[in-house]
């Protein structure tokens, strides 16, 4: 297994409100990955994403060793849902207690890799893709205005990239009392890849380009660097974060 992650402020933003974390367990060979993309004025987005990532990962670290290989992945899904709930509560309470932080929030996309498969949790529009030699598949579904419009047949996916509402998110952590994640499952085979990324990458680099660079790269560190460099080369109007796991 190979792991790597990179985050970059980009070419326009003054602060990096993206956060990623990776944690591994030698007890049961699990790997936990999380990407958060904060929103809010001044430092609020930074605080929201850091709080959410820290809280989510701390909750996972306290309980992940209880998972035994060969068991139902429902345990992992329930654990991730609990971790998201706790993270949401921490960000929400912080937002309510400090007027300068009021309204802050963050996306959260996470994956837990086990010997039995991968479980994914998602709130917001940071994405997770499953990449094989045959295809690239977006596992998560964006919680965004344009994605809802696509589902209703009002615009095409290609039109969404230029739509004036493309940055409007419909669900994030920290802006409401409770927020439950979408849960997905992936059956990973040898040499399969998952990539977690913020919209700073996907707004300027296409899915096909992501697949090509992941399969062309000699290792995951190189793939991370190339994808971030591609975003920077196209102006990188937002923070860019890429986290890759190769089976």
Could you explain how this protein is built, in words?
- This protein is of the alpha+beta class.
- Helix content is 34%, strand content 27%.
- It contains 7 helices and 11 strands.
- α6 packs antiparallel against α7.
- The longest helix has 24 residues, at 74-97.
Question: How does the SSE layout of this entry go?
Answer:
Elements: E1 2-8, E2 18-25, E3 30-39, H1 44-63, H2 74-97, E4 105-106, E5 108-114, E6 117-123, E7 127-131, E8 136-138, H3 145-151, H4 157-160, E9 182-186, E10 193-197, H5 199-202, H6 207-216, H7 220-233, E11 240-246
Antiparallel strand pairs: 1-11, 2-3, 3-4, 3-5, 5-6, 6-9, 7-8, 7-10, 10-11
Q: What fraction of residues sit in β-strands?
A: 25-35%
- How many strand segments? 11
Largest sheet, strands/sense/barrel = 6 strands, antiparallel
Output the structural class. alpha+beta
What is the percent of helical residues? 25-40%
Kindly state the mean pLDDT as a whole number? 93
Short description:
Helices cover about 35% and strands about 25% of the residues.
Write a concise keyword list for the protein shown above.
247 residues; alpha+beta; six-stranded antiparallel sheet; five-stranded antiparallel sheet; 7 helices; 34% helix
